[in-house]
């Protein structure tokens, strides 16, 4: 009987445990659903949040990152000196998240906020509305002497470190700062209005200098970056797996260069020494914030001018034969990050890894177009390297090149000027090629000395700042702006100069750039990529058209991480193919829809083609050209046991990785400390009860995050015996605990 009783008791206990587990499961589901409901009511997500991310080089980390669970602070709006001083000198509710206007976000203000030790993050207003985001007089997060450490004049006693000319006078160097807190911009005007009106003004704005009482409106900023210290450390950690699913802490920056030989040549063609004119432009830039890389003057003006010059020259392609020099149109990527593209091109020259096994010996002269949109004195300025002039032969050839371009410019409203011979080259890819071999080389820019671009490598280098802004419509697509007119003349100058340098003959009067092409390229690069020009050159596939239609903003001019080809790179390859290639009717079996690197003499691309008369269908074409891609990827990441991380031979830039849920900005209300503790203690006791099996004693709660106890006052402990209205929803516990942990 005793044995049977024990068996019955065991069965009863087993059933009770099953019931308990089932009930706990149901309660957990209810709690989770309730917490999600409360979360949606508690937080307002800011979807137009664009974060400052972290990047690294061989010696440092730069950019921004948050704590692993995000940084939380009371929102304080700074729109003048008084509001800045109030936070620094009087604000009692630290930490704060500072909300800054476009005019207040500058190095001086940020440094004051950092020094105050009162902030945990910064939000910057950056919308398309000029009223909420007025243009500052200048803003450039680059340094004052861009690219100097890896350039031609590094350690040069006469020209190094901008001794002759400070190129970027407005550079504040913020891009190269390591910020210990997150910084984000908010691009949606409705959300910036909400932050100001529904959060700051409603709950936080001081009343005649007196701080407001709780509840206060707070912001959680989350942008946790995985990488730390420098690229060498990050790459080593990434390459040392510690489990079956290894973490990736960072990725090397890189993409592809685009190169295109102009002349039609036989299949057995081999270039001779000094038989090629190298015509170059740069493709990339940077800014403080992810995917905000407009580059209107910085890159687009030069890209458009060089492409338009290539198109103009195509009409006279039969003038180029085996007695003339070839032109190699080159668009370099990663140049903003210590000359990734040009360095790799020179590296591949040494390795014989370029088409035709191209070497520096094959290069006769170099012409590079840089910033062209803001013309100092209404002119385009010719720059040459004074070090190269120490060679009398090279100096003579440089003078001949300058004289040729000046003469051509006189017939184009006298738009060209030459700088003083003792002035060094501005930051330009040409510097890397001259480091390798001195050849006659010129750089054409819109500035005589200091940059005329006040927004160099910044989010303000926009279509509207270079007088190229139009509406995103058919009328805007065909509207000829002032900038389009100016760049058409610049492209004509470039085309005629390249023609004369390559053939040795004066350029035909009919050699002119197409104003319509320049107009369309400016629109497609700066306003909307969903334009007819881009539709003509993309692959004839529905996916390609859908991708264009989905683009709500211009393509970013950022090199990004190596591995996937950028949209800008792909479209420039296709535009160059379109402009200098020929439509192939016989060998279409060689045609492909994908852009790729190739060592073949000729390459073939399918293009959707122009619209037919019905304005619906297109004439698909196969275009044959000598245009291809080459690597724009630093050799530092390919050389085994590379030990030059602290040197200046190869770029070492990487970008930190981050989790899919690592970028977040949301708004919520926080109560006073006393209320937080009271709510926490009330809810914890109600849900967990007095059962010691839950591991709590009385109403004390240990906070693992900060390693301290929160102790409820006596009156709060007594009230725990009666469930509060807030306790009716078990999810309140989760949300209350979450808010307290975030705030603390």
UniProtKB/TrEMBL annotation:
Topology class, membrane: Single-pass type I membrane protein
Nicastrin small lobe domain span: 51-227
Keyword annotations of the record: Glycoprotein, Membrane, Notch signaling pathway, Signal, Transmembrane, Transmembrane helix
Principal location class: membrane
UniProt record, GO biological process: Notch receptor processing; Notch signaling pathway; protein processing
Family recorded in the similarity comment: Belongs to the nicastrin family.
Protein name, per record: Nicastrin
Native source organism of the sequence: Magallana gigas (Pacific oyster)
């Amino acid at each position: 009987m005793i044995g049977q009783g024990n068996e019955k008791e065991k069965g009863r206990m087993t059933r009770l445990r099953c019931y308990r587990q089932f009930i706990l499961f149901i309660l957990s589901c209810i709690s989770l659903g309730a917490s999600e409901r409360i979360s949606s009511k508690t937080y307002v997500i800011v979807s137009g949040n664009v974060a400052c991310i972290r990047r690294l080089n061989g010696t440092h980390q730069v950019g921004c990152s948050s704590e692993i669970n995000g940084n939380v602070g009371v929102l304080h709006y700074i729109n003048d000196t008084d509001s800045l001083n109030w936070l620094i000198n009087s604000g009692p509710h630290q930490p704060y998240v500072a909300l800054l206007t476009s005019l207040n976000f500058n190095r001086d203000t940020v440094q004051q906020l950092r020094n105050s030790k009162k902030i945990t993050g910064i939000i910057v207003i950056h919308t398309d509305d000029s009223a909420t985001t007025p243009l500052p007089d200048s803003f450039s997060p680059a340094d004052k002497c861009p690219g100097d450490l890896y350039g031609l004049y590094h350690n040069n006693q006469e020209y190094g470190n901008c001794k002759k000319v400070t190129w970027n006078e407005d550079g504040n160097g913020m891009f190269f700062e390591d910020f210990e807190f997150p910084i984000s911009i908010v691009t949606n005007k409705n959300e910036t209005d909400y932050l100001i009106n529904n959060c700051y003004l409603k709950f936080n704005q001081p009343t005649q200098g007196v701080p407001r009482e709780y509840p206060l409106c707070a912001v959680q900023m989350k942008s946790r970056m995985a990488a730390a210290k420098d690229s060498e450390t990050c790459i080593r950690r990434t390459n040392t797996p510690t489990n079956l699913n290894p973490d990736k802490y960072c990725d090397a920056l890189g993409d592809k260069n685009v190169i295109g030989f102009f002349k039609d040549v036989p299949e057995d063609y081999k270039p001779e020494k000094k038989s090629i004119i190298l015509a170059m432009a740069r493709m990339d830039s940077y800014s403080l914030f992810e995917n905000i890389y407009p580059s209107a003057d910085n890159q687009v003006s030069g890209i458009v001018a060089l492409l338009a010059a290539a198109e103009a020259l195509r009409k006279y392609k039969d003038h180029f034969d085996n007695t003339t020099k070839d032109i190699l149109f080159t668009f370099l990527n990663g140049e903003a990050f210590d000359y990734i593209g040009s360095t790799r091109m020179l590296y591949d020259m040494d390795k014989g890894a370029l088409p035709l096994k191209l070497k520096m010996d094959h290069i006769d002269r170099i012409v590079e177009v840089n910033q062209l949109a803001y013309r100092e004195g209404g002119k385009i300025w010719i720059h040459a390297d004074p070090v190269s002039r120490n060679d009398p032969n090279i100096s003579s050839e440089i003078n001949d090149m300058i004289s040729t371009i000046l003469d051509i410019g006189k017939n184009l409203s006298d738009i060209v000027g030459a700088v003083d011979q003792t002035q060094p080259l501005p930051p330009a890819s040409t510097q890397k090629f001259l480091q390798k071999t001195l050849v006659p080389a010129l750089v054409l820019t819109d500035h005589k000395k200091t940059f005329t671009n006040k927004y160099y490598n910044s989010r303000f280098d926009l279509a509207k700042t270079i007088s190229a802004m139009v509406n995103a419509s058919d009328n805007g697509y065909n509207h000829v702006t002032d900038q389009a007119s100016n760049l058409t003349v610049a492209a004509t100058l470039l085309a005629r100069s390249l023609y004369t340098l390559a053939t040795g003959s004066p350029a035909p009067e009919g050699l002119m750039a197409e104003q319509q092409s320049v107009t369309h390229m400016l629109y497609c690069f700066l306003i909307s990529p969903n334009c007819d020009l881009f539709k003509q050159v993309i692959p004839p596939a529905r996916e390609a058209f859908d991708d264009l239609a989905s683009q709500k903003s211009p393509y970013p001019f950022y090199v990004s991480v190596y591995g996937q080809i950028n949209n800008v790179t792909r479209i420039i390859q296709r535009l160059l193919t379109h402009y200098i290639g020929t439509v192939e009717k016989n060998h279409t079996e060689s045609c492909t829809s994908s852009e790729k690197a190739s060592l073949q003499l000729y390459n073939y691309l399918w293009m959707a083609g122009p619209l037919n008369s019905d304005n619906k269908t297109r004439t698909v074409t196969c275009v044959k050209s000598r245009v291809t891609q080459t690597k724009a990827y630093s050799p530092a990441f390919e050389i085994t046991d590379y030990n030059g991380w602290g040197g200046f031979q190869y770029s070492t830039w990487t970008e930190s990785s981050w989790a899919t849920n690592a970028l977040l900005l949301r708004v919520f209300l926080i109560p006073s400390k006393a209320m937080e503790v009271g709510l926490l203690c009330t809810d914890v006791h109600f849900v967990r009860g007095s059962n010691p099996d839950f591991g709590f004693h009385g109403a004390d709660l240990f906070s693992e995050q900060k390693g301290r106890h929160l102790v409820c006052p006596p009156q709060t402990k007594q009230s725990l015996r009666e469930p509060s209205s807030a306790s009716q929803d078990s999810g309140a516990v989760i949300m209350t605990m979450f808010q307290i942990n975030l705030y603390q």
